[in-house]
Design brief:
The chain is α+β, with helices and mostly antiparallel strands and 231 residues long. 38% of the residues lie in helices and 28% in strands. It has four helices and nine strands, in the order ααααβββββββββ. The strands form two sheets. Strands 2-3-8-5-6 form a five-stranded antiparallel sheet, with no helix packed on it. A four-stranded antiparallel sheet has the order 1-9-4-7, with no helix packed on it. A hairpin with a 5-residue loop joins strand 2 and strand 3. Helix 2 packs antiparallel against helix 3, helix 2 runs parallel beside helix 4 and helix 3 packs antiparallel against helix 4.
């Protein structure tokens, strides 16, 4: 019975805050928990497009506001005639609502960040290797040990190797062929236009063959402008 009373008092103090010597401790605890949740979300979040992190930022922002209000004691004010006077029920209800907003948003933000790590978009541009093959018009694009996703959004860059002597990029087209497993072929692709490639299931090693179709005599540099894995 005593243990239950202690646990109950701890929960009440955490939700509505304590009084007396422990007041500052209970008011600062939600902010400390917010810092822990925000750090967890930041460490668990993958590299990827900023737009997918908007829900996480909004949720953690609301959690920050609520926990900061508790830290400064701005969530509830009531006139006090003496130190023994207890706050009214409405003030305690408001404090409980502020705590609920903090807790729900902090947990939801951390969980959303963890889901992005498993299913969100991941920028793997820095892991792309583009190598020419024996045929001058073909290049092999490889990604190794990348996060497990089922689709790749790839944007290829083609630039004139001699810009002052030629201008071949406007007429250049690409053919992309996914090799290994299900073979996928994409023809007539313009440079700097993203291509969404189904990988035929989740895979961590990806290989594509890129064929460059350009006017005769053109000398071109081929590279990956962007590569994003997603579901």
């Amino acid at each position: 019975m005593a243990a239950g009373q202690v646990v109950g008092d701890l929960i009440v103090n955490l939700v509505i805050g304590g009084e007396g010597h422990w007041k500052n401790f209970w008011n600062s605890l939600p902010f400390c928990l917010f810092v822990a949740a925000a750090a967890t979300a930041w460490l668990r979040a993958p590299e990827g497009p900023v737009h997918q992190f908007t829900p996480v930022i909004v949720l953690l922002g609301l959690s920050f506001v609520a926990s900061f209000m508790r830290l400064l004691g701005l969530d509830v004010r009531w006139p006090k005639r003496d130190s023994a006077q207890k706050p009214p029920a409405s003030a305690l209800a408001l404090r409980a609502c502020v705590f609920a907003v903090f807790l729900v948003c902090a947990v939801a933000g951390a969980v959303r960040a963890d889901l992005l790590r498993r299913d969100g978009e991941v920028d793997v541009t820095g892991q792309v290797e583009v190598r020419p093959t024996a045929k001058s018009s073909e290049h092999t694009v490889t990604l190794s040990d990348v996060p497990d996703r089922s689709r790749l959004r790839l944007t290829m860059r083609v630039e004139d190797a001699r810009p002052g002597d030629q201008s071949c990029t406007p007429e250049t087209r690409l053919t992309l062929v996914l090799t290994g497993g299900d073979t996928r072929r994409f023809e007539g692709v313009r440079p700097m236009r993203p291509v969404d490639v189904p990988l035929g299931g989740s895979r961590t090693d990806i290989t594509l063959t890129v064929t460059v179709h350009a006017p005769r005599g053109c000398d071109l540099d081929v590279s990956a402008a962007e590569a994003v894995l997603h579901e």
